[in-house]
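The instructor's notes for this session suggest beginning with a concrete chain rather than abstract definitions. Hand out the sequence below and ask the class to guess, before any prediction is shown, which regions might be ordered.
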Amino acid sequence: MGHRVGVVGASGYGGVELLRLIDGHPDLQTAIVAAHSQAGQPVADLFPNLAGDRVFDDIDLDRLTELDLVFLATPHGVSLELGAALVDAGVRTVDLSGAFRLTADDFATWYEQDHPRDDLAPAVYGLTEWRREDVRAATLVANPGCYPTATLLGLLPLRDVIVPGSIVVDAKSGTSGAGRAAKDHLHFSHVYGDLVAYGAPMHRHTGEVEHWLSDGASEALGAISFTPHLIPMSRGLLATCYGTVRDGVGPGDVQQALVDRYADEPFVHVLQPGSFPHTKALAGSNGCHVAVVLDERTGRVVVTSAIDNLGKGAAGQALQNANLMLGLPETAGLTAIGTYP
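After discussion, reveal the predicted structure:
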């Protein structure tokens, strides 16, 4: 029998993607499938891809504390309370919300409420490729948001060659990133054939990217401009990032910076110059494709990153982190190869 884990918020898109991945994992057993409003209902009624007689459980803290690890695929308000309780009980926890990604001061700025636990703000940030050893030793991991994951994987290798204050991020996500709840603007007749920006200029992910892009850098990268967009497809995310480079930086320098940093990474693939990522190529995977070009005419670098917003942007990365926390092979139950076409 493998490690016993639980998924809280299992009726949401991030939660059900976790269930799908864990069901195919060689060393994990889903012992609790908790969902507050759906408790007692068959999982397959909501998600026919998970056929069987499994039902959603109630959220029971006492039962959760008996597990080896708990995934929280819950809104940040729920995670603030439940995540802290699990950590206090010594239970390894991976939280997919924004509850523990920022300092208490930044959380108050971007979420417009006080953080109840300064000692957990921030927790270990689970951008695995950049925080691997911290994740391995962590009790609580704050899984990055989908937009910051794609953005940071593209920009972090280049932060020493980019002029502070010059970064602009234009990102587009499929509708599953908005969650499963019925919302008027997500109706098929509204989304189909449409493309719209939203959340600018103070989307919550802006603060997350700014904080972690500068964390540990030789020089802070300063404020960024970030604009997300909703595109008419179920899953997938593409981030195109722009920044002015320092004097003397050439096309080979920016390409080599990404190649050197990700050469040994199982889930991040740097494309050849002249190629650009396709979201469909990552569907259903934990992979990330990154491409970089330097516009020598304007002096700006252009980095494009693609992920599955429910994979590397949520459940896949959460499982990648859980593998490390439980002492398992990092790649267990995961693939970098998407379904295509």
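Then share the key points. The first helix runs from residue 13 to 23. DSSP finds eleven helices and 13 strands in the chain.
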